[in-house]
Design brief:
By secondary structure, the protein is an alpha/beta fold. It contains 16 helices and eleven strands. The protein has a five-stranded antiparallel β-sheet with strand order 3-6-1-2-5, with no helix packed on it. Strands 9-8-7-10-11 form a five-stranded parallel β-sheet, sandwiched between helices. The longest helix has 34 residues.
């Protein structure tokens, strides 16, 4: 699994100011689709096994069951890792159905965790019976003479069993450590970026382990064919990661034209001029690479798109080790690579009433949308007469940033509500309902801290609001 986007970040997307097809009905159940995809992936891995081995749970001996479980858990762990590797390449095809790259990376994370859990179970099935025999709790079954196979491939694989077992065991220990580090939010991003890429090398070693130790008879069955496809796809993804070619087809060259720091909210505005950018829709995001050693980071696009003025603006808040050093490391005229655009947080559900909620730096996609609406008044791509209320809840205050926000809202004919925590208290569903009496007819677009979004969604669901269809959100943390 190559580096996932950092939690430092934000959002961007496609060839023309592309119509992301994640609109209207497609946007209704992205979390439901995500859960279905995850459990469907596990079923996709387990069911073929049960077809090939329908009697595995009726084994007459413990060690017979153990052999079958070692095979099953090994296959599922490898399958989960393979699918996670492919998703880490940021493919376009699942993005629309899952609802954006942020949700794809959540799927990537879930598959990584599943691979970790199943790999531990696999290791325990392989090792625990040996310990039990050593402690006298189990009696090792008598081993018959292992006949020499007439098949040269089977003989070759059999001769490599010892090496494959050793490689698998040591790579297992390394992979467990690397995945656990990836799940620790406090682990510095620049170290995460370097260590997470090592999983690609570990994957290639596990391919050798899997090819040698998969029961040879399985290779002639659909299970063996599926294994071959998974190993091939995962290996291809690992090579792309090791060569640092992830997302290169969606990259364009750019240069920084402006840097501005908002001291009150500790956020950095980065304006870039890009060559060959395909255009984006407001609310999308892009990956920016300023230093190849640091890797690509996802940032919210805080501007609309006009081909005649090929510039993209990002707003990045100091949220972690990478963004904390950003204003010191960037300079005007510095060359950058911009990859994207990505994301389906694009506001185009066709509803005549919308409510936007931006928590902290989560205000950024709404800024981009308002700038787009101000530019496109004569050629609008939203319903005529659409009414919008924007709620911005923030703990930090920067008067210049708030003045700009108010100006953007006026230009886009958006009603702005600013709530500063220390002065106005926290934003709640009740306050939104009081300010927008027709809230039941609206769609709600949320970008902000995960806990805030979860609480707001629960509150609205409790009031009968159809959150599965009309509550749209972007996950603020993708690592």
């Amino acid at each position: 699994m190559p580096p996932a986007p950092a939690a430092d970040a934000a959002r961007g997307e496609r060839r023309r100011p592309a119509k992301c097809s994640c609109i209207a009905t497609a946007a209704r159940g992205h979390m439901r689709n995500l859960k279905r995809a995850f459990w469907g992936a596990l079923a996709f891995l387990v069911l073929p096994w049960l077809v090939v081995e329908p009697t595995m749970f009726r084994s007459g001996t413990f060690f017979g069951l153990r052999d079958a479980m070692v095979q099953l858990t090994g296959f599922v762990a490898i399958g989960c890792m393979s699918l996670a590797m492919v998703l880490a390449l940021r493919p376009r095809w699942p993005e629309q159905w899952l609802g954006g790259l942020d949700k794809m990376y959540r799927m990537h994370k879930w598959l990584g965790i599943a691979a970790l859990v199943v790999a531990i179970i696999h290791w325990l099935w392989a090792q625990a019976p040996k310990w039990a025999v050593g402690w006298g709790w189990l009696e090792r079954p008598a081993r018959g003479m292992r006949g020499k196979s007439d098949n040269p491939v089977a003989s070759l694989l059999s001769s490599q069993r010892g090496a494959a077992e050793s490689v698998g065991e040591w790579v297992f220990y390394a992979v467990v450590v690397l995945i656990v580090l990836a799940l620790i939010r406090r682990f510095p991003y620049h170290w995460f970026y370097k260590t997470h890429r090592l999983l690609a090398g570990g994957w290639l070693a596990l391919v050798f382990h899997a090819v040698v130790l998969l029961k040879f008879g399985y290779w002639a069955t659909p299970l063996g064919w599926l294994t071959a496809v998974l190993l091939a796809c995962g290996s291809w993804a690992a090579i792309v990661v090791l060569l640092r070619r992830v997302g290169t087809r969606s990259q364009v060259e750019g240069r920084i034209t402006l840097l501005h720091h908002f001291d009150g909210v500790d956020a950095l505005e980065i304006e870039t001029e890009v060559q060959g950018w395909p255009g984006h829709k407001p609310g999308q995001f892009a990956f920016v690479t300023a230093d190849p050693a640091d890797g690509a980071h996802p940032y919210t696009i805080a501007s609309g798109w006009r081909k005649e003025i090929p510039r993209i603006t990002f707003v990045v808040k100091d949220l972690g080790d990478h963004t904390h050093r950003l204003h010191e490391r960037l300079r005007v005229e510095q060359a950058v690579k911009v990859e994207g655009p990505y994301g389906c947080f694009t506001f185009d559900d066709g509803r005549p009433r919308q409510i936007w909620v931006g928590g902290g730096i989560g205000i950024t996609p709404f800024i981009g949308r308002m700038k787009h609406m101000a530019w496109q008044k004569e050629d609008r791509d939203w319903p005529e007469g659409q009414k919008i209320d924007l709620f911005h809840s923030t703990a930090d205050v920067d008067e210049e940033a708030l003045d700009r926000l108010a100006g953007d809202a006026r230009s886009a004919n958006v009603r702005l509500h600013v709530l500063i925590d220390a002065r106005d208290g926290y934003l709640t569903g009740e306050r939104i309902r009081a300010a927008v009496p027709e809230w039941r007819e609206a769609s709600i677009w949320f970008c902000g801290p995960t806990g805030f979004g979860d609480a707001l969604k629960r509150d609205l669901a409790g009031q009968g609001f159809p959150v599965e269809r009309h509550f749209h959100r972007e996950f603020f943390a993708m690592r």
